[in-house]
Write a structure and sequence with these properties.
The protein is mostly helical and 120 residues long. Helices cover 59% and strands 4% of the residues. Strands 1-2 form a two-stranded antiparallel sheet.
């Protein structure tokens, strides 16, 4: 039997949710669900560029500095997904990376490298 949270995660991962269905999950209580929501929204940027600012806002939201495992945070995963989206999203990701807090930048760069994200 699936839990409500797992059902939500599965729906977010499916790619079948609309932006309006995803949006409330960007600000939910669960770090895992917020992470999946950011990923789902980032996947829709190419076809819906006006949502880019919502994804960027979610990435920089202090609540998303929550660590998922080890040094990896919700924000790290969100930034990774921007690099995999539209050209405008990649440019935003580069700007966010350049302005990332110095104390956390090494962890972020390590994560992006481990995920084989081209940041240039």
């Amino acid at each position: 039997m699936k839990t409500v949270s797992q059902d939500t995660i599965d729906r977010l991962r499916s790619g079948n949710m609309t932006v309006d269905e995803i949006r409330p999950h960007l600000h939910g209580n669960s770090a895992i669900i917020r992470c999946q929501a950011i990923e789902a929204m980032a996947g829709k940027i190419a076809s819906n560029p006006e949502i880019l600012h919502e994804v960027v806002d979610a990435i920089v939201d202090p609540i998303n500095s929550t660590r998922l495992m080890g040094a990896i945070s919700v924000a790290h995963v969100g930034l990774k997904n921007l690099f995999g989206s539209s050209q405008a999203a990649k440019e935003n990701a580069k700007q966010l990376l350049a302005n990332w807090p110095e104390a956390e930048r090494d962890d972020l760069l390590w994560f992006l490298k481990s995920e084989r994200v081209a940041i240039d």
